Each structure stands twice: as C-alpha cells, then as structure tokens.
Amino acid sequence: MTRPTEALRPPTMADVAREAGVSHQTVSRVLSGHPNVRATTREQVTAAIERLGYRRNSAARALVTRRSRTIGVIAVDPTLYGPASTLAGLQEAARDEGYLVSTVTLRSGGGHALEDALDHLAAWGVEGAVAITPQRSSVQALARLAPPFPVVTVEGSHGLDIPGVSLDQELGARLVTEHLLATGHETVWHVAGPEDWLESAARTEGWRAVLEEHGIRPPRVLRGDWSPLSGYHAGQELAGLALAGRGAVPVTAAFVANDQMALGVLRALREAGIRTPRQVAVAGFDDIPEAGFFPPPLTTVRQDFTAIGRRSIQLLLEHIEGTVAGVEHIVVEPQLIVRASTRSQDGA
Amino acid sequence: MTRPTEALRPPTMADVAREAGVSHQTVSRVLSGHPNVRATTREQVTAAIERLGYRRNSAARALVTRRSRTIGVIAVDPTLYGPASTLAGLQEAARDEGYLVSTVTLRSGGGHALEDALDHLAAWGVEGAVAITPQRSSVQALARLAPPFPVVTVEGSHGLDIPGVSLDQELGARLVTEHLLATGHETVWHVAGPEDWLESAARTEGWRAVLEEHGIRPPRVLRGDWSPLSGYHAGQELAGLALAGRGAVPVTAAFVANDQMALGVLRALREAGIRTPRQVAVAGFDDIPEAGFFPPPLTTVRQDFTAIGRRSIQLLLEHIEGTVAGVEHIVVEPQLIVRASTRSQDGA
DNA sequence: CCAGCGATTGTTAGCGCTAACAATCAGGGG
DNA sequence: CCCCTGATTGTTAGCGCTAACAATCGCTGG
C-alpha cells in the first residue's frame, strides 16, 4: 500500500528488513550465515524471507563484492560425445560449488572466434573459464590472448604452459597398440584424427612409439576428421591395401583414433568383403555408448569424461582462489576396453 | 599515480571520462550509441576506451537497468545427440542477440532437481529460460512451479499450454510407418522410448495412427530407454518372435524410436541370424551422424536440431520483450531419410 | 555500583552504472 | 541586441547489496 509499484518489482532486502522489524544489514548477516545473530532474530528474518519470497539480487552482490560467481566455458563442437560429456561433468561440479556456468560454443576454432568468445565472457565478468578447445591453434591463441581471468584447458595443455586437465592420450594409444601386437599382429595401421588436434597428435605419438619400441617401422598414417564418413574413406583405402597385399606391409590390424571413424572403417572393410576381426582387427578410442554394439563390438579406450570435467573445475577454482596447489597439469588415466573387434575367436 | 591500488582494479567509466576529458555520462552515451554526441567527442571517448582497455561492468549495468541479458537453459542429459545439438544451435542464436547463456544440467528429470535448477537460475537473475526437458514429469513440474521469468520448452509443449518449439514427432513417425507399409510389409512393429518422454509418446502415437488408418491392429509395443543396450534387448525379443513365427503377427519390419536403440536392434537381429532388411526391415529416428554407417545404413527421420534451438531462442526473446506474436507453439518439420535398412535390394 | 567487555544490531558509505533533470552553447527571428 | 530553440554536455540520484564503523545491551569484576 505504501508504494504504487510494489507488486511490479521483486522484494529487496529492505523489504525483508521492514517485514522482520530489523535492519537490512541483519538480513544480510542472516543470509551469509554470520554467527553473531540471535537465534530468534534469525528465525524472524527467515520467516520474513519465506513470506515475501525474497531472493538476493546477485547483480548488486556482484557489484559490491567484485565477484560474479560465474565461470565461463568455451567449447568447440559440443555435439561430439567427448566434449558434451565433459561439459556435463563440469557443469555439475561448478554448480555444486555455487557457481553459474555460462557456455559459449565455437563453430570452428579459428583464433578470431576464440577472441570473441573470451570478450563475450569478459564482458559478463566471469571469474575464470574452462576452454574445451582441443585444437593446437586455439590453445596457442589462448596463450597469446592472455585474458583478464584465469583459464584452464581441457585436452589443451599437452605441450604448452597453460594449466589444464587431460587424459593420458598417449598411454591410451599405447595400450591399444600393445594389445594389438600382443594379439599376434605383425604391425598396426593407424587412422589419425585432424592434424590440428592435440589429442590426435598424442594418440598418433603413442602408437608410433610402441611400434618403434618393438622394432617395427610404422606404416603410413591415414587421416580423417573424426566423422564416420572420413573413417569410411580411410577404411576403403585400408581395404584396398589389404586386398592388394603384394610385398607391402600386411594390413591385419588398425588403430582408429576415435570410435566414430572406426564405425566408418568397419563398414568399408565389410563392404570390401573383409571380415573383422578375422582378417583385420580394428580398435577405436573414446568408448561412446554405441561402441559395444558395432559390428563387431569395438575394442576401444574409455575416457572418464565426467572426471575430466570435474577436475577441470577443481583446478580452475584453485586458480581463482589463488591457492594453486603445485600441480598444474592434471592427467587422467584411460582404460582399455577389449571387445570382439580385436578378438580372433569372434566374427561379425 | 593518483591511487595506490590503480593497477588492481579494472578501469571504470569515470576513469575513461577523466582520460577523455568528459563526464562519465558522455562515456555512457557513446557506449550505448546515443545520437546526440558530437563526432569529435565520440572519437575522443572511443580512443580513451581503447587506451585504457575499458569494458563496461555488466553487474552495475544489470543492477540499474534490471536486465541481466542472460538467459538460462535447463537440459536433461546433454550427452545425447539431440539435446546437445539443440543446445549448440540455441547458444549461437542467443549470442548473436547479445545474450549470455547459462546452462544447468539435470542428471534426472525429477521434479525436485528441476526446481533447484530454476532456483539456481533465478538467483542469478536470468531474464528467461529454455527447458530441454522432454519428460512429461518435468514439463508438468515446470507448469506447476511458475518461475518468475518466461520459460520456453523444447519438445515439451505437446499437450500442455506452455510455449515451446518442437519437431512434429508424430509426422516423423507417420512418414516412417507409411514408408515401411509402402515397401510391402504386412505390419510394423515398434520399439518405443521411455514412457515418460513426450517425444516417445508422440512417435508411438504416429505409428499407431498409421496402422489403424490402414486397418491394421498394432502389435504389442516393445519399450527401451533410448540406449543401445535396451535396443539390443528389444531386438532379441523381436528376433525370438520372428523366428517362432507360428500363427502370430509376422515380424518383417520395425520402427525403432531412436537411432541408438536401432543399432542395438540391428545387432540382436544379426546375432540371431536374421538379415536386415531382407528378413526384417528396421528404421530409426534422429539421424545421428553414425546412422549412415550402421550395418546396414539406417533409414531414419532427420530432425533439424539447430533450427529447433534457434527458434526456441527467438520465441523466448519474444516472450521477454513482451511481443508475443500470436503463435506460441512452433513446429518444425521432420524429414524422412531412406537408406539400406529398409530397402530390400540391399543386405548387410 | 560503575567501567569494560563481548555479543548483537544499526548506520553510513560506496560498488559502477543509467535515467532524469539541469546547464550550457550556438544560431535565428523579432 | 535579446529571447527562444535544439543540440550537446554535465549533475544528481539512486539500483540492492556488503563492509566498515558506530551504537546499544546485558553482564562481569573490582
């Protein structure tokens, strides 16, 4: 009744104070759990808050505390299973810590797009950001841009001095390659991901290292773009090599850099009349939910994306709080999942 | 030099004003593109902004304008291809409009989790939200909760009076079912998604309607949970029915409610020695990137997730601006993609 | 019985920005 | 030569909140 526009605007702290018969500061104290508030007062305030449906205005709060309690995430193509899962894990962890997560997605990883994204986040005063931009160029751009808040990368810290969380891609590749060699293959072919991706490079590296350790000269690397179609094309090439088979390196096993491409490879081989795994064993990477139902079920490397997301938030918060506890590169262990696609006792 | 802590805090509008020799209000005017500012003044201000690396504080702005220019998104399991793609389209559209997108992910769609998510968003003063929560229970909870800002749903407005964008799921199901009948099948079996999902219900409805229009009594509905594994189990059941084949309804065609489950069905059929599509034709829904490489390539219904995301932002903004242009339920058309899994001239 | 202490509550200044209003200036008509 | 007008710029109040400081209260010890 006191004001004509009362109903239009949400209640403020002053409204609650009036309702509870205390000062707005006491309300603030109750809200932030200050110890020196009498129990009865606290109850009155709580009741008033309840009655009015009051909610703290975070803009005002951010203004005075200079803390937005918002963190940004920059993600490239969150349509892929990996980034999407990481994002999910990360969101949850951030929310548990009372942070809001604002996401910006990039269509491509071009340096300029990244700059725009950082600007966008900076304009909203995020306290820090996680970049899920696993391309070499993006990470370099990130290092160059030096945003006004801490940034932690996911799968981006491999060679560079940026804090980040990543799976031990190389170890994953080693596990697969060792597994294939142990199964009796003379050598292992490799279908790599895009050259610009750090993960791709690390996987190729692991594969190459194992072969060299075994005194095997690595065959030529085939390359795709993570898509099933590109895998299909690589598979056609492999099939051609397998069927020609004159004098060249035998094609009996292939390590494909992700599961989606592996699906394409499997299809191409099948179309060429080549049986998996009897004639050519195939392994992937990621363990997408579909992998266990491929024809045949795919041997692959499982990544704990949720853990990666969680750890990256943890690391970022440490940077924000300034309690950077020693380690800056967190590495998560992969797990080899062996299925029919590399077991000779089963066919398609 | 004037202040000891100068370097610690980012420049404010007052700093820019001093640097440019004008009042802070003029700076504000330049920033918001007010017409009545002399060109030379504008240039000076712009130069000062550039020199100081000034950036408007959006918390202060939000406080005084009562507009956060932030929208929230609530998503259930953004690991699935559909939600993830929708999210991506939506992000981009929102960013183009100068909004920040804050996402909250829900593990399950339980009513309480949704309430928490809304609270979380409300606490940060979002101006509106998009809910990608395609479960009946979530949408009902949404309708019940009546949050203090407009909410638009994606795939959630089917039966209820909540504004939203959705694909014409029923039409998609009809297209598939008609296609299968046209290919010469006596009837079409159906593997549905979870009962609680609106999309699932709509797809089942479309399938049932077509059969009934053709005077066919719909066979018993099998049910999965969208996962490949659940599809596999349904497939085993179908295989059993197909092989038994005594007196019962013949099993020669199946419409599976999503592509992932279809993969499981295909695997189960293959394991049972049943050829696709020669003995049993299979169709899916979604057109995930892998679908064209399934054994055999899957006939399915393509959804334009990006368009759905974009339209939902459009609709939400209209609600925020208050310019609710008549239509509140936007429906996007699906597209039938015919591949080998329903063509009798090709096998696995 | 009063200074003095801790516990509790209130008062006062901004945080950085925009909106409303005020002031200033140049030029044209009477 | 002065008033009026519109263009341009400046001044003044908050937005809703927290931090720092001030005030008050009930007790305790001397």
From TrEMBL, chains A, B:
One of its GO terms (molecular function) is DNA binding. Transmembrane segments: none annotated. The lineage of its organism: Bacteria, Bacillati, Actinomycetota, Actinomycetes, Kitasatosporales. It comes from the Bacteria. Keywords: DNA-binding, Transcription, Transcription regulation. It comes from Streptomyces pakalii. PANTHER family: HTH-TYPE TRANSCRIPTIONAL REGULATOR GALS, LACI-RELATED TRANSCRIPTIONAL REPRESSOR. SMART domains: HTH_LACI (SM00354). InterPro entries: HTH_LacI (IPR000843), LacI/GalR-like_sensor (IPR046335), Lambda_DNA-bd_dom_sf (IPR010982), Peripla_BP_I (IPR028082). Signal peptide: none annotated. This is LacI family DNA-binding transcriptional regulator. Residues 11-65 form the HTH lacI-type domain.
